[in-house]
Amino acid sequence: MDRNQIIGFSLLAALLIAYVMYNQHEQKVYLEQKHADSVAYVKAHPRSLVDTLTAPAAAAAEKTIVDDSATAALRMSQPPAYNGVAQDVILENKKLSVRFSTKGAFPTLASIKEYKDYGGAPLHLFDGPNNQLSAVLPIDNGKSTADLYFTPVKRSEPNGDKTIDFTADLGQGKKIEVIYTLPADDYMMQCNIVMTGLHASELPLTWNTFLLPTEKDLANERMSTQVYYRNKNEDNDYYTVRAEEKSIENTSNAAFWLGIRKQYFNSVLIADDGFSKMEAKYSYKADDTNIVATTFAKLKLPLKAMGETSTASMRWYIGPNDYHTLQSYNIGMKEMIPLGVGIMAFVKYINRWVIIPIFYFLSSFISNYALIIVLMTLMIRLFLSFFTYKSYLSSAKMRVLKPELDELRAKIGDDQQKFGVEQMKLYRSAGVNPLGGCLPMVFQLPILLSIYYIFPSLIEFRQKSFLWADDLSTYDSIFSFGFDIPFYGDHISLFTLMMTASSLFLAIYNKNMTPQDPNNPMLKYMPYVFPIILMGVFNKMAAALTFYYTFSNLLSIAQQFIIQKYFIDEKAIHAQLQENKSKPPTQSKWSQKLEEMQKLQAEKAKNVPRKK
User: Fold this and answer.
1) 323 pLDDT more than 50
2) Cα–chain-centroid distance for residue 87?
3) Cβ–Cβ < 8 Å for 595, 545
4) Average pLDDT of 570-589?
5) pLDDT of residue 608
6) Which of 19, 128, 170, 232 is least crowded, fewest Cβ atoms below 10 Å from its Cβ?
7) Taking the CB of residue 234, how many other CB atoms lie within 10 A of it?
8) 348 near 303, Cβ under 8 Å?
């Protein structure tokens, strides 16, 4: 390479280096000017940040530096509560563990420590960010606390209570505090809301709950899921959750508390001063096996103002449907346990004053709940033994009079009206009450119905095993079909089969001991049809209930055999009835009225012209 070539290449290299350095300088000046323009634009047009964040990925990649700077500038101009990172904070005691999110300051998970779900895992009543308790603040056209970032401060009290104080700084002297306090050994959590520099007479709340399945039978768990509320005037009502969306509106009377109850657990929001307004919607999706039911409620909570500070307080029960626990709060939450509803509402008093006290008395010193069922059945049968004896005695009298009734029927023929009148005369002369066998059964029916309601509702039976039943609170299954049989189910419950078999045996035994009316064939087959129908109904019932009915039937068979064998002498009864015929007849007002009605019907039948 000669001298001229060396000089030429050197000049070209110098020019190239100079061009690169100049280009870098100009680009740096351009970017700095563009950055300054962007910041100025963002300050003048805050909404442009939203457009930047929603732009396509390629455009966002080109403006990374610009956007980050714009976001930083915007954040610098916003109150601290508008920016942050959501974190989880846990508050727990001996009974309850509640997880909160610092974004929104509401519980996202509630775990009831003393219980497990059907699979043995920790029992979560609800879990997930969709579970919210948020308030609409009188700022920024209705800013929701769900969008604010709170700073949590935890502390423990000397008495063992645990507290989390969530604070959101809204700037310019405005802030909101949400304070949760969990007692050392209780399911009732206190919630206080304190607003500073925010003026309002009431605070709109939104309460969303997504209940998780915890029991063996999801369908039965949904059938038992209900929304309850109680007003300040102590009126209360409830609605069973259905697949279609239902609504509750309560604006005419202040609501004291609103709760959503599953089969054995519930979540209740209680306003100490009452909610001035309440609207709730609840439903479930039949094909969603991950959620039992959902509730969306809008409430208005009255505020108490003192200068620049406004306060409101609530309580939040998250726990089991335990009768004694709910009763201890003395705010009517015990009504959430179905002890008798509808036309059977009267049996709740039997449950409340008789069955429940006996159950808790026995469970105070007996830990085997199957043994408790056995003892309760014995006590109930012993209590009803007087009525049972009267019923069997009346049946014996009817059997003794059956030959005379057969002669009377052969003499009169097909004239049923006349036969009824003569039959009543025979009963009256012999001193027999034709309703004597029915009335004792009427007294026993309320007990049977009260057990029907209370046993599936007692959480004490939950996950308690007996023989082949691993859980007395749900059905026992010895075989699963893998498909559903209409009016029966997808499994075989052995306790239900035993209940049905004992009911049929009792019906056959009663048929042989009770005279039958040949003119009413329906009564002849009804005792056999009824247990078969109930077999399909009870196949999915709690094993505690079907075991009780099975053992009760066996006791009835034994009791009836003993009474017939050792306490009823049909020869003596026959002699007594014949002796009664020689005495002046005494007629009760009921018998007299019944005989008058029969005579009136007989007269009407004579006056009706017969068709040729």
Assistant:
1) yes
2) 32
3) no
4) 70
5) 59
6) 19
7) 9
8) no
287's CB contacts (< 8 A; 6+ apart) are none
141-154 per-position pLDDT tens digit: 889 999 999 999 99
Other beta carbons within 10 angstroms of residue 116's beta carbon come to 14
Spatial contact of 255 and 229, defined as CB atoms under 8 Å apart: yes
CA distance 27 to 75: 28
| Cα angle, residue 501 at apex, residues 500 and 502 outer, rounded to 5° | 95
Q: What are phi and psi of 96, to 5 degrees?
A: -140, 145
pLDDT band for position 530 (50/70/90)? confident
Element (H, E) at 398: helix 385-412
Spatial distance between the Cα atoms of 203 and 135, rounded to a whole number of angstroms: 7
Nearest to 230 by CA among 329, 311, 137: 329
In the chain the domains, ranked by start, together with CATH numbers, are: 8-77 (no CATH), 87-336 (2.70.98.90), 348-597 (no CATH)
* Residue 408: per-residue pLDDT: 78
Residues in the chain: 612
End-to-end CA distance of the chain: 145
Q: What is the 3-state secondary structure (H, E, C) of 22-76?
A: HHHHHHHHHHHHHHHHHHHHHHHCCCHHHHHHCCCHHHHHHCHHHHHHHHHHHHH
Residue 358: pLDDT over 90: yes
What is the pLDDT, as a whole number, of residue 31? 41
Q: Show the tokens assigned to 329.
A: 């709060």
Cα radius of gyration rounded to whole Å, the chain: 39
* Rounded Cα distance, 244 and 210, in Å: 16
Tell me the one-letter amino acid at 118: Y
